[in-house]
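Issue 218. Parser rejects a valid record. Input:
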Amino acid sequence: MKNIIIFLICLGFQTVVIAQDCIKGQDTRPLNTTSINLLGNASLISLNYERLFKVHPKVLIGGQLGLGYNEEFVLWGGEAESFSTIPIQVTGNFGKNKSMLEFGIGYTIINDLDKYTKNIAYSTIGYRLQPLKAEKINFRVFVMLPITDTDNTSIIFIPIGISFGQCF
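Output the parser choked on:
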């Protein structure tokens, strides 16, 4: 494909904006993903959108936002209350081709502030299988360690998770 270069000069400020489409032979990896996380992110299940930013051919930075579901941890006979969660995460991803090491930080907003006033921050490390073409499946497996104290909450925080998604 041809390079498309657009110059925009604004009223003598000499501002130049350059936009290019993909050049043949360059990495055309899809940078958007919708995914379902099973466990992790202080949610039992969550639906997420992620946008990746290419820093280098072997380095991607990802920002993720989701909507999830979790419930109270109840040992004996009590009824567990359910609540919604809003997981937010930023990751660095390093690797060649499809296989990548992922690490980052996250924060989950607990959406029942009457009972749970404490949100949860965590660090994450994992493996990512990120396809090189659109319309392919993304796969992640990860471990999360809470940064904030979760001892005085009755929230289920499972430190491992798995994710499947569609890249576009």
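Fixed in the parser; the record now loads. The longest strand covers residues 59-71.
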